[in-house]
Automatic annotation (TrEMBL):
<dbReference type="InterPro" id="IPR050078">
    <property type="entry name" value="Ribosomal_L11_MeTrfase_PrmA"/>
</dbReference>
<keyword id="KW-0949">S-adenosyl-L-methionine</keyword>
<dbReference type="GO" id="GO:0005840">
    <property type="term" value="C:ribosome"/>
</dbReference>
<keyword id="KW-0489">Methyltransferase</keyword>
<feature type="binding site">
    <location>
        <position position="248"/>
    </location>
    <ligand>
        <name>S-adenosyl-L-methionine</name>
    </ligand>
</feature>
<comment type="similarity">
    <text>Belongs to the methyltransferase superfamily. PrmA family.</text>
</comment>
<dbReference type="GO" id="GO:0032259">
    <property type="term" value="P:methylation"/>
</dbReference>
<dbReference type="Pfam" id="PF06325">
    <property type="entry name" value="PrmA"/>
</dbReference>
<feature type="binding site">
    <location>
        <position position="183"/>
    </location>
    <ligand>
        <name>S-adenosyl-L-methionine</name>
    </ligand>
</feature>
<dbReference type="GO" id="GO:0016279">
    <property type="term" value="F:protein-lysine N-methyltransferase activity"/>
</dbReference>
<dbReference type="InterPro" id="IPR029063">
    <property type="entry name" value="SAM-dependent_MTases_sf"/>
</dbReference>
<comment type="function">
    <text>Methylates ribosomal protein L11.</text>
</comment>
<keyword id="KW-0689">Ribosomal protein</keyword>
<dbReference type="InterPro" id="IPR004498">
    <property type="entry name" value="Ribosomal_PrmA_MeTrfase"/>
</dbReference>
<dbReference type="GO" id="GO:0005737">
    <property type="term" value="C:cytoplasm"/>
</dbReference>
<keyword id="KW-0808">Transferase</keyword>
<keyword id="KW-0963">Cytoplasm</keyword>
Length: 313
C-alpha cells in the first residue's frame, strides 16, 4: 500500500489539538518532532544517552507527521485537516508557522518512521512507559510498567497532559477504588489506574479507533479484568459513581460538563482534569468551583495545567 506523509509545522501548544485532528482524519501513528527535544539530554534507566539526529528536528516549533493511505479520498481528507487546524485559532491556540506539506512514502518507511523516537520513559515516581517493541527490565521493585503501542491512538503516554494525569492518579487512587476515564485514547490512564490496584475502571472514548486501541493496550497489560473500555460521549455511558474521575481533554470540553462530573464523583472523591493550556487555567478552576468542587492541587508542566479537585464529603 502507498502512504502519504502529511507534515504540519506548528507550535508546542498546538500538539494535542493537531494530533487529535490527524487521528480523527484516520492517520495511522503521529510522529512529533519537537525542536525542544534536541535541547534536553535524554537518558534511559541505565544512564545511556539517546543520540538524536538534528536533521530529524525542526529549527523551531514542532513538526507533526501523520501517515495517511493514498486513496481517492486523500484530497478531501487533506483539505478537511487544513480547515480543522485553521479553526483552532478560534480557541486561541497559536499555530506558529502553520505550514502543511504532503509527500509520498513507501510502506517500509512508514512502518519504522515513528518508532525511532520512542524509548522507555520514566514519567513519575512509579510509572515507566515502555513501547511494545522494546525489552525493558524494571529498575525499582515498586516500579509500574505500562506497555503501549503509541501508533494507534492519542499519544505515546509522554505528553505533559498524560504525564501529569498519571502523577495525579498516583496521588489519588487507593486500592479497590472505582475509576472513570473520560477520553481514554490509548487507554494509558486506565491501565495506570489498574496497576495502582483500582478495583474497577470504566474507560470511554468518542473515537472508535481509540476504543479499539485502548482495548488492545488493556489486554497487552493484562488488566482486562479491571478495565472495561466502551464507546461513548463524555459521561453518557456512566451509571455508577467513581472514587476518582479523570478527564484529559481540552479545556473547552472540560468546562462544558463540570456539573455532570460533579454528579458522578462520590462525596469525598477526586476529579482530575488535564489537557488545559495555561491561558485557560483560571476559567477551568472557576468552572470547577462553580459546580461545587474544591481545588486541591494545580500541577503545571510546559504550557499545560492539571487540576486535582475534591467533591466535599
Ligand atoms: C488528549 S486525548 C487523552 C488520551 C489519554 N487519556 C491520555 O491521557 O493520554 C483526549 C481523548 O478524548 C477523546 N474525546 C474527545 N472528545 C470526547 C467526548 N466528547 N467524549 C469522549 N471522549 C472524547 C479523544 O478521542 C481522545 O482520545
Amino acid at each position: 500500500m502507498k502512504w502519504s506523509e502529511l507534515s504540519v509545522h506548528t507550535t508546542n501548544e498546538a500538539i494535542e489539538s493537531v494530533s487529535n485532528i490527524l487521528h480523527e482524519a484516520g492517520a495511522s501513528g503521529v510522529v512529533i518532532e519537537d525542536s525542544e527535544d534536541l535541547m534536553k539530554a535524554r537518558e534511559d534507566q541505565f544512564g545511556e544517552i539517546w543520540s538524536l539526529n538534528p536533521d530529524d528536528f525542526p529549527k523551531e516549533g514542532v513538526v507533526l507527521k501523520a501517515y495517511l493511505p493514498v486513496n481517492s479520498f486523500l484530497g478531501e481528507t487533506v483539505e478537511a485537516i487544513k480547515l480543522a487546524i485553521n479553526n483552532l485559532v478560534a480557541f486561541d491556540i497559536n499555530l506558529g508557522a502553520n505550514v502543511i506539506t504532503i509527500s509520498e512514502v513507501n510502506e517500509e518507511e512508514w512502518a519504522t518512521a515513528w518508532k525511532k523516537y520512542y524509548h522507555p520513559v520514566k514519567i513519575s515516581k512509579r510509572f515507566t512507559i515502555v513501547p511494545t517493541w522494546e525489552i525493558y527490565e524494571p529498575v525499582d521493585s515498586d516500579e509500574l510498567i505500562i506497555e503501549l503501542d503509541p501508533g494507534m491512538a492519542f499519544g505515546t503516554g509522554t505528553h505533559p497532559t498524560t504525564v501529569m494525569s498519571l502523577q495525579a492518579l498516583e496521588k489519588t487512587v487507593k486500592p479497590g477504588d472505582r475509576i472513570i476515564d473520560v477520553g481514554t485514547g490509548s487507554g494509558v490512564l486506565s491501565i495506570g489506574a489498574a496497576l495502582l490496584e483500582a478495583g474497577q475502571v470504566h474507560a470511554l472514548d468518542l473515537d472508535e479507533i481509540a476504543v479499539k486501541a485502548a482495548g488492545l493496550n488493556v489486554k497487552l497489560n493484562k488488566v482486562q479484568d479491571t478495565v472495561k473500555v466502551v464507546h461513548g460521549n463524555l459521561l453518557d455511558t456512566v451509571d455508577e459513581p467513581g472514587d476518582v474521575v479523570v478527564a484529559n481533554i481540552l479545556a473547552e470540553i472540560i468546562m462544558s460538563f463540570t456539573d455532570d462530573a460533579f454528579q458522578v464523583v462520590k462525596p469525598g472523591g477526586r476529579y482530575i482534569t488535564s489537557g488545559i493550556i495555561t491561558a485557560k487555567k483560571t476559567d477551568v478552576k472557576n468552572a470547577l468551583e462553580a459546580s461545587g468542587f474544591i481545588i486541591e492541587d494545580v500541577m503545571m508542566m510546559e504550557d499545560w495545567v492539571t487540576i486535582i479537585s475534591k467533591k466535599p464529603e
